[in-house]
Amino acid sequence: MQVYADNAATTRMSQVAVDAMMPYFTNVYGNPSSLHSAGQEAKEALEDARARVAKCLGCEPREIYFTSGGSEADNQAIISAARFGARKGKKHIISTAFEHHAVLHTLNKLEKEGFEVTLLDVSQGHNITAQQVREAIRPDTCLVTTMYANNEIGSVLPIAEIGAVCKAAGVPFHTDAVQAVGHIHIDVKAQNIDMLSLSAHKFHGPKGVGALYCRRGLPLTNVIEGGAQERGKRAGTENLPGIMGMVAALEDAVAHLDENMARVTALRDKLIAGLSQVPHSALNGDPVNRLPGNVSFCFEGIEGESLLLLLDMKGVQASSGSACTSGSLDPSHVLLAIGRVHDVAHGSLRLSLSEYNTEEEVDHILEVVPQVVSYLRNISPVWRDLQTGKRTYIL
Amino acid sequence: MALYSEKVMDHFTNPRNVGVIENASGVGEVGNAKCGDIMKIYLQIENEIIVDVKFETFGYGSAIASSSMATEMIKGKSIHEAMALTNKAVAEALDGLPAHKLHCSVLAEEAIKNALKDYFDKNNIPYDHEQFKETDHDDLHAQVHGE
Ligand SMILES: Cc1ncc(COP(=O)(O)O)c(C=O)c1O
Predict the structure, then answer these.
(1) pTM of the predicted protein model
(2) Using the beta-carbon criterion (under 8 Å), do A381 and B1 form an inter-chain contact?
């Protein structure tokens, strides 16, 4: 049995999305900027797509800007708010310690330019509160940017409450909703979200396409300079097939959101209950406010890469926040930010489900994960030291 | 998965010589859990011959494979032959390791050397201290990961 349980990394495209793209490769292939009929036909499709994305988010079509994905949308939102703030002498930004690197690295860049960044602590309950945001806001705060839901540990942040706090303080609020769009109900107006990033490949759409919602009245700064596409705010000939695939996937996700959420949440809870039986393990992330598909655990005494390789051989494709996957000496900054020490963070496993996963697959995961964990523990000197009392258990 | 050679995968999934030796002639442990890899080697030595060897490893698939291969390479050999085992020989015997996993073979060489040193110390056998220079593992890790 082959089980794909890495949907937070990327998803399989839905047939609806693939079908929606096809005509735009060979039939409607004009450049939307061209004046001839082929171009105008493409332009019409593009604007229709914009209106449909806007409808799914609860905003106006002119507030949607198509991008190359979540990273670009994050970069542009943050850079734009920073430039706008700096013009008014405001150079303080609030974010969280467990953001995606698309956000954190952009903030690092701004820090080097003289901005001050406050990263909210996420070690309490593996989440933040709106109260933390309220307390961090200063007169010179030009942006609050918090993710909607965490990609590694699945915590869903109190977005509407944060939106209300920001609105009351008059501070623009951006959310990286890459992991949330298509999986959780979102209404940018009701939730007082000023800017939002999304990425098609996380909800069964194509890779390399996404969007930035930016409330009317907030000025955007170009990240990519050139032609006048996207109201002059994002240059480059539009990826029309990608955009059409994204819209189809988004509408499909939103139309079936409640049923998908119920089904995936049930699978998730079964997995969490089963894996909680493994001794000296711990669930990462907010146990209550949680993405429907996210299961994240730390298993003491083992290392994540060997865990992933063995699981792959047994047909389970998953992910880990161990050093090997972060490509550096340290395990994932997210696991460290929620207070997992290095020794434990190395032994992390993320299983992320989608509506394509089945109960049989979950049963298969529940059969092989404990086997592989105990196999690795049996050859681990750390585990022996824990068992013989030379080392004390953390979990 | 094309990340590792077939040899690495074989030694990772069917590791040879896993376990412990009670009252071993020499025990060596290198690495730390903070970095994500620890290797422990147990040697049983009789008349300067390694009659038995066992290992335990916490770490990457390549760390488990390196320890397994290294134990195979020294089992039944003399302590002098074991002293001459290099990380390069271990990596070659595994048909190569990805560049950023080469430190796993270094750990294997060092764990064996550490176990031999423990044996020399326990038996008051004189040796050249120069031969047992330990690498700083944080440094090594940082080098291979290019940080
Ligand atoms: C929370 C979050 N933000 C941003 C991104 C980046 O999105 P993309 O891959 O479309 O650039 C991802 C996905 O990798 C993500 O999970």
Answers:
(1) 0.94
(2) no
